[in-house]
Design goal:
The chain has about 230 residues and is an all-alpha fold. The chain has ten helices and no strands.
Length: about 230
């Protein structure tokens, strides 16, 4: 595992630059503009009011835990399978997923450090308890500046960003494996929708999906061209 660690950082500086340059900047801009449209039109608050029933929450709540554990445990499990089978392809896939997850998380935290968005009301989470039981529209609550709202809550959703980064990384690496691609996309969609009806606003899920997809395609394409 120690020898494989550098592979986790394969072309890392180049990939970071690629994520924030060229046409990919247009996708970042799309995530921002789409968020503005959803927030200003009242879409976030309307979505919030229509999706906070107990049935939605029961179905979606596991996404919070899965979205936190799968990027770590899932990546390590794939790596372990690759080591047992002595499969370089599987091992490389594991490290590509690891890099996609790390970049997805760090990128979302970078944005959150500047946007400081207030989370929606959700019982059981201290940061959103300030709005618990309230029917006052708080979806416009941004605290622009440096670290005014921390990096663990807000825009975009880290859960969605990481999930879509990993899913699109798999799509880029194994486009011919339809079952794998379908499972990866369904997983990402469940995580994104799950947090959008619990701890995040809908626009935060959408932005995370867009930004995460950029990251996943960049990392996946990078590792796909990696010499064996």
């Amino acid at each position: 595992m120690i020898n494989a660690m550098p592979e986790l950082f394969y072309r890392l500086p180049r990939n970071v630059i690629a994520i924030f340059s060229g046409r990919n900047l247009l996708w970042h801009a799309l995530a921002i503009v789409l968020t503005m449209v959803i927030v200003i039109s009242g879409g976030d608050w309307s979505y919030f009011l229509s999706t906070r029933g107990n049935a939605f929450v029961r179905f979606a709540r596991p996404a919070i835990m899965l979205g936190s554990l799968v990027p770590i445990l899932g990546t390590l499990l794939i790596w372990l399978v690759g080591e047992i089978r002595k499969s370089r392809r599987v091992i490389s896939t594991a490290w590509a997923l690891g890099q996609a997850a790390i970049l997805g998380y760090l990128t979302s935290c970078f944005y959150k450090a500047f946007t400081g968005r207030i989370p929606p009301p959700f019982r059981g989470f201290r940061m959103s308890a300030m709005n618990a039981g309230s029917l006052i529209d708080s979806s416009h609550g941004f605290q622009f500046g440096w670290l005014k709202g921390g990096v663990f809550w807000g825009w975009p959703s880290s859960h969605a960003t990481v999930a879509f980064a990993m899913a699109l990384c798999l799509v880029a690496l194994h486009p011919g494996n339809r079952k794998l691609v379908l499972c990866a996309l369904l997983y990402a969609l469940y995580i994104g929708l799950g947090v959008s009806v619990t701890i995040h606003w809908f626009s935060e899920f959408m932005a995370g999906a867009i930004i995460g997809s950029i990251i996943g395609m960049v990392v996946g394409t990078s590792f796909k061209t990696k010499p064996a």
